[in-house]
TrEMBL record:
Residue ranges occupied by any Fatty acid desaturase domain in the UniProt entry: 110-363
Transmembrane segments: 79-96, 102-125, 237-257, 269-289
Molecular function via GO: oxidoreductase activity
Protein's UniProt name: Glycerolipid omega-3 fatty acid desaturase
A Pfam family: FA_desaturase
Gene Ontology terms describing biological process: lipid metabolic process
EC number assigned by the record: 1.14.19.-
InterPro entries xref list: FA_desaturase_dom, Fatty_acid_desaturase
Annotated spans, Disordered: 1-24
Alphabetical UniProt keywords: Membrane, Oxidoreductase, Transmembrane, Transmembrane helix
């Protein structure tokens, strides 16, 4: 009944995919996508008959708004941050005997958490290497990436592949990698033990290294060249090389910490294995909170686009210096997902400020204070069981489902679900820019099976 200017909160709208990833691209046109009443108006509190009009900035507009310096990669600056993280870990290992002798178990508890946290920080540096934002030299990125990741038991090249595909298909129902999107059918197909494992917050200590990378849940093993993750001989050789680097690092760590003295194995457990579990907790928790929240949307084929998936990413502020020490991968993740091969971590804060300025008026920028990050992870990990809907999917209200309510239906069809419940038309205007068709090089089109979706990292 007449147009109404959109007010906050704003419903999420369509956009167009562009990426700086390793893609072959072709342009084609596509008409605007008209969402259903449930998706566009229901959650925003608009009444029936409301007409909503909104234009979302294109990715090229976002890139122009970001200072040019944010796309400049400095080899020296990247190496500095890598050495800084190694220095922090070295200092912790130097003081370990004193901590153990003078502060007992309480001191070791603090030491374990600090060591595991700085392992996580070092992983983020290797993460820059994998994206090519560490420097302009691919060979140097790969060398430094192996140096950072091998001691953490992360096979660099296999991780690089699955993580690149995650960025290229973020929030795609079937093509997103390392971040599973369970449907009701898949969830109910899990055993009671698997369901209990998924919702147990203690599982974050083993999900990444042991279940995802080693056992190959979801995407295939990252340490075995025979894994279905790899599609050609080159990738299998790369897997063997990265696994060998990881094994060499493991041997050096064993020899360096065991020392041939009595109690050497216990020292390895205390000085390496426990911090490695803490590292697992950090990477699992941070990546989960970057991509999961009550209002997260997941898109099926035909409804998904690169930029719609990217804008489901959440910037979370952890506070207490954690964001800066984590190289702002926590509170600068939206900008990172938009330009994942182009912006080094030390420019993410400036890039985020520019992106936020353009996206906030459209209601599509997500930032949340997550100082209670452990509590928030525990809450969401239990609460968000599976997504439901058609085309555009969202998490169900698990408590309501337990009481007998039906899962929500999110349809991209503006026609009524039944003749008795007609839906009003929704007017949507989109920025006029060609749609970029994404085609990953060497991307397998196989669908996830329930078994591969049983243990998300």
């Amino acid at each position: 009944k007449g147009k109404q200017q959109l007010a906050s909160p704003s419903p999420r709208k369509t956009a167009y995919p562009v990426t700086g990833g390793e893609l072959s691209i072709s342009e084609r046109s596509k008409p605007p996508i008209v969402h259903s009443l449930q998706h566009v108006l229901g959650s925003a509190g608009f009444s029936k008959g409301t007409m909503v009009e909104q234009t979302l900035p294109t990715l090229s507009q976002l890139k122009k708004a970001i200072p040019e310096k944010c796309f400049q990669k400095s080899l020296l600056r990247s190496v500095y941050y890598m050495l800084r993280d190694f220095a922090a870990l070295a200092a912790l290992y130097i003081i370990y005997p004193s901590v153990q002798a003078n502060f007992g178990l309480a001191g070791l508890f603090v030491w374990w958490n600090l060591a595991g946290f700085f392992m996580w920080c070092l992983f983020v540096i290797g993460h820059d290497c994998g994206h090519g934002s560490f420097s302009e030299y691919k060979w140097f990125n790969d060398v430094c990436g192996h140096i950072c990741h091998a001691p953490l038991m992360v096979p660099y090249w296999p991780w690089q592949k699955s993580h690149r595909l995650h960025h290229m298909y973020h929030n795609h129902l079937t093509k997103d990698m390392s971040h599973p999107w369970m449907t009701q059918e898949i969830f109910e197909d899990l055993t009671p033990f698997e369901q209990a494992l998924l919702e147990n917050p203690l599982s974050l200590f083993i999900k990444y290294t042991f279940l995802y990378l080693f056992a190959g849940k979801l995407d295939g093993s990252h340490v075995l060249p025979t894994s279905p993750l790899f599609s050609d001989t080159k990738e299998r050789i790369q897997c063997a090389v990265s696994t060998l680097c990881m094994l060499v690092a493991g041997v050096l760590i064993y020899v360096g910490l065991e020392g041939g003295a009595e109690g050497g194995l216990a020292r390895i457990g205390s000085m390496y294995l426990i911090p490695l579990l803490v590292f697992n907790a950090w990477i699992t928790m941070v990546t989960y909170l970057q991509h999961h929240d009550e209002d997260t949307k997941v898109y099926a084929e035909g409804e998904w686009s690169y930029i719609k998936g990217a804008l489901e990413t959440i910037d979370r502020e952890y506070g207490m210096g954690i964001d800066d020490l984590s190289h702002n991968i926590t509170d600068g993740h939206v900008a990172h997902h938009l330009f994942f091969t182009q912006i080094p971590h030390y420019h993410l804060k400036d890039a985020t400020a520019a992106v936020r300025q353009l996206l906030t008026p459209t209601g599509t920028y997500k930032k949340k204070q997550s100082w209670n990050f452990l509590g928030k992870f525990t809450e969401l990990n239990y609460k968000l069981k599976y997504v439901a809907g058609q085309g555009v999917l969202s998490y169900v209200d698990w408590e309501a489902i337990q009481k007998g309510a039906s899962p929500p239906v999110c349809s991209t069809d503006a026609s009524p679900a039944t003749p008795a419940a007609p839906l009003p038309k929704v007017a949507v205007t989109c920025a006029t820019e060609p749609l970029i068709a994404l085609e990953a090089k060497g991307r397998s089109t196989r669908k996830r099976s329930p078994a591969r979706s049983s243990s998300p990292p």
